[in-house]
Amino acid sequence: MADRKLSPTSYLVLSLVARTGPCTPFDIKKQVDRSIGFFWSFPHSQIYAEPERLVEEGLLSGYQETTGRRRRIYTITDAGRTELEDWLTTGQDKRTHELRDSGLLKLYFGSLSSPDDVVEVAAGEKQAHQKRLDRYLAAHDSLSGDPASDSNELLVLEFGIRYEALSVEFWGEIEQRRAAVQPTASTGNTPPTSSATARMRRRSPAE
Question: What HEC string does 119-134 produce?
């Protein structure tokens, strides 16, 4: 395998072109939006730029339509299939194991706010995860009844269902536990105030 600097986006594009056949960057974007985008997010600009970069690497080939909308069409090359096979059979790459969750980040620094603020964050996170869970369950019902559906896609969807269900349970527990926290008795140290109260105080005229 040649020493190429390929990103996860590179392999995502290679995989979709290999599975779908000749397609445009817009076709790739549509597939990402309804599937992979739920668990691997990145700027859409990368989807439009990456195919041409892979052409330069010899992993995709591209041609321009001579009629109609004159779209740029991409197909995978033999070298691209070899690169893709090597990636698919390689173990976990530590550099691509990421979890970026703003809710967890706010919870981690929750001691800088009040229990009420944490309750508000937890309630919002629980609601957001519940919405995604409902969407995943509906998608699973639809795909599981389709004989042409990809069983591997269903497995990834099942992971998403378990993750969202666990997240709903987790944030529900945080909401209850922090709601039960009583205000700290005065000990000379002023406990953190809620962000809403702090904003109101800043806006109030000086006495």
Answer: HHHHHHHHHHHHHHHH
Residue with tokens 């140290």: 189
> What is the chain's alpha carbon radius of gyration, rounded to the nearest angstrom?
24
Whether residue 2 contacts residue 10, with contact meaning beta carbons closer than 8 Å, is answered with: no
State the chain's maximal CA–CA distance in angstroms. 78
* CA–CA dist 106, 108 (Å, integer): 5
Distances in Å between the alpha carbon of 136 and those of 29, 141, 190?
A: 20, 9, 44
CA distance 103 to 119: 11
Closest Cα partner for 171 from 106, 114, 99?
Answer: 106
Domain locations in the chain?
8-86, 102-180
Q: Is the dihedral of CA 51, 54, 59, 62 positive or negative?
A: positive
> Rounded CA gap, 85 and 21, in Å?
16
pLDDT tens per residue, range 28-41: 998 888 888 777 77
- Helix and strand numbers (H, E) in the chain are 8, 2
CATH of domain 8-86: 1.10.10.10
Dihedral pair phi/psi, residue 61, rounded to 5°: -120, 150
Reported confidence tier of residue 75, pLDDT bands at 50, 70, 90 = very high
126: tokens are 């629980």
pTM: 0.66
